[in-house]
Specification:
The chain is α+β, with helices and mostly antiparallel strands. 23% of the residues lie in helices and 38% in strands. It contains three helices and eight strands. The chain has helices at 15-26, 64-72, 86-95, and strands at residues 4-11, 32-36, 41-47, 52-58, 75-82, 106-108, 112-117, 126-132. An eight-stranded mixed sheet has the order 2-3-4-1-5-8-7-6. The chain starts with a strand and ends with a strand. It binds zinc ion. The site of zinc ion has 6 residues, from strand 1 and strand 5.
């Protein structure tokens, strides 16, 4: 079950410039910046009352975000839904015929285990499932 929109991910060319824009827009500072080396991405997170905004900037020319920016430019990149049990949700969606980019959750930014659905499965929108890592 998808519990809520956990965050919206926005691909940006210049993370520092975008961070300042969103600090002004939202009237608050980012609460976290994090590099995910395996994905070649750097992320900046903002909290709103209910959900978050994630800015995504490329750290390598060949990373998925760099390729996305090259092809489609800046803009809304994905919608992330909060789930309680990511394995159960992966199984449910696979059994419903959704195509996932990977079958196994991996470590994402902001203390999450994540997995992506192929945009073909969700009418052109990249969907991320994320489960909070409890420690
Ligand atoms: Zn995300």
């Amino acid at each position: 079950m998808m519990r809520k929109i956990e965050h919206l991910g926005i691909a940006v060319k210049d993370l520092e410039v975008a961070k300042q824009t969103y600090e002004t827009l939202l009237g608050k500072s980012a609460y976290q910046s994090e590099r995910v080396e395996s994905e070649g991405v750097e992320t900046v997170f903002f909290k709103t009352v209910e959900s978050k905004i994630e800015l995504l900037g490329a750290t390598q020319d060949d990373s998925p975000i760099a390729k996305y920016l090259e092809k489609r430019g800046e803009g809304l990149h994905h919608i992330a839904f909060d789930v309680a049990d990511i394995e159960a949700e992966i199984e449910r969606l696979k059994s419903e015929g959704f195509q996932l980019i990977s079958d196994q959750p991996k470590a994402g930014a902001d203390n999450k285990r994540i997995v992506f659905l192929h945009p073909k499965s969700s009418h052109g929108v990249l969907v991320e499932l994320c489960e909070e890592i409890k420690d």
